[in-house]
Design a protein that fits this description.
Elements (H helix, E strand, L loop, with lengths): L4 H15 L1 E2 L9 H7 L28 H17 L5 E3 L5 H12 L5 E5 L15 H5 L1 E5 L9 H11 L3 E4 L10 H10 L8 E5 L4 H5 L12 E5 L10 E5 L4 H12 L5 H14 L2 H23 L3 E2 L8 E5 L9 H10 L2 E2 L1 E3 L13 E5 L1 H5 L4 H17 L2
Parallel strand pairs: 1-11, 3-4, 3-5, 5-6, 6-7
Antiparallel strand pairs: 2-8, 7-8, 9-10, 10-13, 12-13
Bound molecules: pyridoxal-5'-phosphate (PLP).
Length: 397
Amino acid sequence: MPMSRVFDIIEKEQNRQDKTIELIASENFVSENVRRALASCLTNKYSEGYPTHRYSGHKGRYYGGCQYVDELEEYCCDMWRKVFDTDYHVNVQAHSGSSANLAAYMAVLQPGDTILSMRLSDGGHLTHGSPVNIVGKLFHVVNYDLTADGYIDYADIEKKIRDRKPALVLAGASAYSRIIDFAAIRASIEKNSDETYRPYFMADMAHIAGLVAGHEHPSPFGIADIVTTTTHKTLRGARGGLIFCRKELAGKIDSGIFPCCQGGALQHAVAGKAVTAEEACTPEYREYIRQVVRNSKAMCSEFVRLGYHIVTGGTDNHLFVIDLSETHPHLTGKRVQDTLDQHDITVNKNCVPFEKRSPVETSGIRIGTAAMTTKGYKEADFVAVAQRIDAIIRTME
Ligand SMILES: Cc1ncc(COP(=O)(O)O)c(C=O)c1O
């Protein structure tokens, strides 16, 4: 068989990944075992439906020959419950974080219902209800505000639960560097609920899931009704999504994925997620996550020392956002991203709270430490990278 052109392209991408300093907060490098699982024969198998023993009420698969993928999917579910030390129901079939979120909304909401969430430009995700995303087109979205210094305004969440009566309150973010107080949001929901009104509480922990697994961030389990995540960011695993929920929502959540939003499960991805879960249970992974947070704090402090404005002034997790709007008003996030690219440093432009530029230009960049910590970087390495980025930005003055 002739060699496919695709492998030349893959080799070029491998070289890029080998030589660049990867600071995109949502990226990571997976293990050989995860890659083996993803490249396995499981990609050949159709498996619409769920394993027969599932307690959500779904009755088996729509195809024969599923005995081994049934075993795999059950094992994957068990392992993820172990990672988060929870008895929640889990669905491991979501193809991505976006699919997980859409399926979760479809499971418990009706089109037109109100979702209360963080706005995209404040650090939320497209699937939290941006008008350009299907979620914003299907549902009515109300956003809670940030305080003047960029923290989640919990008083505003409580006020909007009381005044706007959302059907679902969503906690979670793509670019928020502080602890999310799930318990405070639950308390506001309880305070404003009665027998006629009780919103669902959903936590999208896509970014911080690895920190939750490693006890470096408070857990939403036991507090949120539904928890969604990706598996490829701080969890350092196969690309994909997961949905956890209280057992009484299991049937709705499973139907939200299949048949509502997806067809056949990607069992090679389920296998990759199962390996990811095995790895996330190890002491080595726990130590890795602690190092990710130590590195993030060290790098962030160096940027502060160098005179940069960090949204909220610092970080509690694996990422932070540099707001250039006051210190470097002539620079856009896009220009900085493009210039750093030329120096083999990969970051992404990011909106900042109260953003005045478009999402294409932006006034900020987001920086994360999960990927380079996997490559063995420690605090001193990240401090050195901060100094290098500063030197490059100075040439742009
Ligand atoms: C908070 C959050 N939720 C959901 C997603 C969507 O994940 P995916 O890109 O896998 O669809 C992301 C991705 O960045 C995210 O940050």
